[in-house]
Amino acid sequence: xxxxxxxxSLDSWHILHRMFRFDRRAFDALPGKGQEKLVRExxxxxxxxxxDPDGDVSLAQMLGHKCDLMLTHYAKxxxxxxxxxxxxxxxxxxxxxxxLSSYVSILELGLYExxxxxxxxxxxxxxxxxxQEWNDAFDALLERAAQEPRNAxxxxxxxxxxxxxxxxxxxxxxxxxxNWYRLSYEARARLMLxxxxxxxxxxxxxxxxxxxxxxxxxxxxxxxxxxxxxxxFKKLIYEMRFDEASAAxxxxxxxxxxxxxxxAELSAFLDGERIPQLLPPEA
Length: 283
Ligand code: 76R
Hints:
Alpha-Beta Plaits
């Protein structure tokens, strides 16, 4: 516990991404009344999830063959994610949706700088490392970090309400010669500082949600990026490729790109008569 080589994180939403193929032909073959009923049932199921202060749900129309629809669900436990997964699969709409992929992760804010400070602060207080007192003091420091307004707002934010979304999983390399996990803490902290510096130069243009999936899924992190202009993804990710933390140590899984839309636009997505929009939040 609390090994000095391990950066701490603040953890919040439990996240399930689900990617589906939509059987548009089969849906189109339903009579209008049947389509309406199905949309009403799905909307009645999803609306409370979107309004829930203890979670959120977002829908996105995805581009290309990897999937047609991506559902992102935030909850406070895996149990709740599981309950909603089953509830969703019981909807009539699910007869037209084939699961193609998914991703399980927990939103995290990495604390490279703060962790180092905590270790120093506790050793200056002359607490014996890993004693009960030391552990309690460490927990208190983490708790205080979680309460800082900047962190608290990011930990429990709803899915960013921006039109374009890009999701991909990534690892930090663990090869025989190139191995992130064998770098010193200081080296990793310095690289993350540089990473954050590039990231922040895009501040306002993009909202990133980093979620950790070590122990849960096939990659180590899920990266969600949200922007009002998709070109921002290309510029940001390209620039990061030149940064040491990505250039030397990152490897990536499949990229998923699409457009978020409001639940009220579900029927537009399903009947395909116009492009479903992300509506401004109701006043
Ligand atoms: O959260 C913060 O603002 C503090 C700095 C920061 C951390 C700790 C930060 C900032 N990130 C952090 C952690 Mn990030 N990030 C990615 C990717 O495509 C690639 O090359 C990598 C995918 C992008 C695009 C991105 C964007 N970040 C992480 C971690 C955890 C690593 C670990 O703990 O070892 C990963 C995997 C990761 C990956 N990052 C930012 C951004 C952006 C845009 C920022 C600035 C946010 C802002 O201040 O607006």
